Amino acid sequence: MYGAIESRFADAVKSGNLIFTQTTQIPAKYNGVDVIYTLAPALAKKPGKAEVEKNSSDPAQKSPWLPPQEDLIIEKQEKYTVVLNKFAVAKYHFLLVTNEFEKQTKPLSPGDLRAAFDLLKKANSESGKRHIGFYNSGTNSGASIPHRHVQFLTLPDSFVPFPDQTPRARKANMPASDTRVPFAHFIAHLDNTDDEELLADKYMLALSRAITTCARHQVPLSYNLVFTEQWMMATPRFQDKVNDISINSLGTIGLILAKSDEQLKYVEKHGLGLLEELGFANVPEPEGATEIDDGYIKY
Ligand code: AMP
């Protein structure tokens, strides 16, 4: 499969059916955490949310994957298709899209999680490189397409996403949070979980806190989900952009895109603090919080 990703990518760039934007990467640290700021001045040419939405009022009509563009298809499965991102900022950015229209605002099903993790593992083992999977869900999450899609990218060489270093939660039924990071985020360690139901439980462990956080602040649910073979992390969101800098799931592990020098300066100044503005503050776990039920903490 990975060989097909590489060769299709090269062919599609050559034929002009895939628009690959060259970028400059600026590795940095935020409070001891690895971050990479990326300058992509040509990104403004990519169709944004507004352009996608004005096409139709029917969500299914707004999907670019009914059907997917033939020369971007990597693999057809019974329920999902693996496709290349048509507007790539990083090489080999690929997506797992549902064959039928499913809403991006709904939670991932156990079957979606199973398919997404299978694909992640396959990409890791076939390429020898570590990948990150991500799901932007809700109007404030940075998502632009309403048709369900989980995305995948190669992690930059020697980049350590901060959840790799986050200590475990004090109790098994609680998600972990990293004190170095200023925004609310909820990490479920996977402990080599491979079973579909257990994966769904881990997802719910992280997601339930995102739901609680949005509910507590009385905002509609929007969140970013990022995952590796080792952990899943949910970040509740309150807004999708600041200073015209749109941040999606990748921003939550410190991979932040700027479209101009001015935006880059802003990103370098605020770093992961941007996520606190666009999400919620990282509040330490209250003493005595013991269990989660229906997404709410019991005291
Ligand atoms: P999001 O913005 O999080 O909803 O992710 C949607 C992704 O799909 C973006 O990265 C787009 O660049 C990408 N995309 C948009 N149109 C197409 C298309 N026709 N084929 C493949 N990918 C697309």
UniProtKB/TrEMBL annotation:
Example GO biological process: nucleotide metabolic process
List residues of the ATP adenylyltransferase C-terminal domain. Answer: 180-280
**Which residue range or ranges hold the Ap4A phosphorylase 1/2 N-terminal domain?**
4-156
Q: Which residues form the active site?
A: 149
Signal peptide boundaries: none
The entry lists its GO molecular-function terms as: ATP binding; ATP:ADP adenylyltransferase activity
Q: Which InterPro entries match?
A: Ap4A_phos1/2, Ap4A_phos1/2-like, Ap4A_phos1/2_N, ATP_adenylylTrfase_C, HIT-like_sf
* A Pfam family per the record: Ap4A_phos_N
Classify the source by domain of life: Eukaryota
Family annotation (PANTHER family): AP-4-A PHOSPHORYLASE II (PTHR38420), PUTATIVE (AFU_ORTHOLOGUE AFUA_5G14690)-RELATED (PTHR38420:SF1)
Q: What is this protein called?
A: Protein APA1
